[in-house]
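pasting Probable lipid II flippase MurJ for the record, 518 residues
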Amino acid sequence: MSTVKKTAKAAGLVMVITLISKITGFLREVVIGSKFGTTKYVDAYNMAQNIPMVLFAAIAASIGTTVIPLFSEYLAKKGKDKAFDFINNLLNALILLTVIFASVGIVMAPILVKIMAPGFKGDVYHATLKLTMILMPVMVFVLVSNIITGVLQSLDHFSVPAMIGIPYNIIIIGVALLYGAKYGIYGVAVATVAGSIIQVIMQLPVLYKFGFRYRFVLDLKDEGVKRVIILAMPVLVGTSIQVINTYVDRMIASYLPSGSIAALNYANRLIGFDIFSMAIAIVIYPMLSKHFAANNIDEFKKGIKMAVKAILYIMIPVTVGAIIFRYPIIRILFERGAFNERSTYLTSIAFMFLSLGMTANGLRNVLSRGFYSLKDTKTPMVNGAIAVLVNIGLNLIIVRYLALGGLALSTSVAATLTSLMLMYSLKRKIGTIGGYEILASFIKAITGSIVMGGFAYLTFNLVMRHFPATKIYEAVSLVTAIFAGSIVYIAIIMLSDNSILGYVKKGAKMLKGKLAGD
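structre below
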């Protein structure tokens, strides 16, 4: 199977599983909300979750990210046995450090809660303290899970790592529904720990199937462990910078009309439902790492170009659709109860301007992983820091004129700047990656999306004329418009890009052969 076919197949699978995972995550929040409402105990649970996550989640994610290129290098140059020896040593070293870290966190919990939640007093403070002590061990399992995920993705196995969030959410939902009345929010906290353990257990059989065998080897001076930590530091700094950027956005939003912060949060949730670019980035990363480890720069460039074109062809029409249908999308998903017309209006403003950066965010995810594959974690960090400074500067200027829209627009502009800087930096590092072909794809995607948007908008209004103005009929009209617009867009892209048409023809030929029993 060709690289393109493998990438498309794996990305499609990851998209479907990620969508299911996000749906179960949404249901988890709905169930917790329905069982416990917006009580002080839910505040305590959320804060108790944030304390170990703020302290360690970024570290675990950055280490998991850097495992892929190093493990791929071990596989290419030293073989599977040495690669698994490296993973055993890394796991043991980091588990030891994390257990110490978690133990200190439990002992220091009273101080940590006072620092992270200075406004919590009385019952809510004591609840947060107890929940923090229960949840602190989660960081150990998050670390182990991230490392195993990186290894499996390096071995071209994506399905199980993508689905580990599903049982995690189901366990929490089940405990909240069945035992919420008996054990309260503490039962949910224990379920959270259990869910994180399940995420590790789910992946172990697959890892063993690939030949991994756990051995207790511990060498803190090992070169591989040192390289992971060295490469992870810039990723960690970059993540921390983004967290600071988010806090600055919220701080400025606090000076805007009431409801602005909530509207920004709701809009970000919708933007976070981007499963397309996420799937492409997840799948392309280990492939790029393998190409670089094998010193196959030509294939590396082809992989980057293919991923960038895929992001453009998918995310540009999604952006256009999000902008055109922002009102019905938000009305259908959120407008009920206390979420009124004003809430829809505010959220739609944030959503529209944040949508302008969706394509850039997708490109940033892919291009950053291109640098990580090259074992260069500093360039994305530096470019990200520049973009954050630009975002903060634009916030202070544009928010005077566009208020909430200015905050969202600044974020999109900063994301676009980041992706352009990464593209330029990557070109300087490895040479041209097909800039004219990428530009042509961008123009085709923009043209097709404009036509699609106009056709979908007319379809939506035409269908709505025949239905009462209720949410259920609005949802039917929206789905119909999206489906009709998608057909038009796909037809335009297939006719304008021969490579896309070629892949479709090959896929149809393969399907026809299978149906004929070949």
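The two ends are 17 Å apart (CA to CA).
Residues 165-209 form the longest helix (45 residues).
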